[in-house]
Design brief:
The structure is a single chain. The chain is built from 3 helices and 5 strands, in the order E-H-H-H-E-E-E-E. The chain has a 5-stranded antiparallel β-sheet with strand order 1-3-4-5-2. The protein has a single domain, classed as Roll (Thiol Ester Dehydrase, Chain A), CATH 3.10.129.10. With about 140 residues, the protein is an alpha+beta fold. The radius of gyration is 17 Å and the shape is elongated.
């Protein structure tokens, strides 16, 4: 099931490449250029991501750990981009879906935290996964990190 249509526009690829210091001719001069790898992070302008971090499973883990299930206590820890074949190009249209990968409780020197891993998948018109962004976030006690 597709959550959102994500058209890759050359002008946006150029803007992103320039804004992130990746303004190479490969991104700027070709209307069918490949995207900079982290361009996929711009999906947040098309669709709010992170519904999985507000799931019942995560809420239960927070309750078990004694950590507030409050979005203001959520830290973004890591993003990893995985490409399955050639990177998408300007002119391509992708479709996104999001799924929870796992939830675990970790005890550190500042107390417990709930680690949440979720994946945003980017598929082509043929429903084949072209790329994924793996997110790692953590619910923590406020004032601790």
């Amino acid at each position: 099931m597709h959550m959102v249509k994500f058209p890759i526009e050359w002008g946006k690829v150029r803007e992103y490449a320039t804004a992130t210091g990746a303004g190479r001719p490969a991104y700027l001069d070709n209307p069918a250029s490949v995207i900079p790898p982290t361009f996929l992070a711009t999906v947040v302008y098309w669709k709010a991501i992170g519904n999985t971090v507000r799931s019942a499973e995560v809420a239960e883990a927070c309750a078990t750990a004694g950590v507030p299930f409050d979005i203001t206590s959520l830290l973004s820890l890591e993003q990893e981009y995985v490409f399955h074949g050639p990177p998408p190009r300007a002119g391509d249209t992708l479709f996104t879906s999001e799924r929870l990968h796992d939830v675990r409780i970790k005890h550190g020197r500042n107390g417990p935290m709930v680690i949440v891993r979720f994946v945003v998948s980017f598929c082509g018109d043929d429903d084949k996964v072209r790329a994924e962004c793996w997110y790692t976030s953590a619910y923590v006690q406020k004032g601790k990190s």
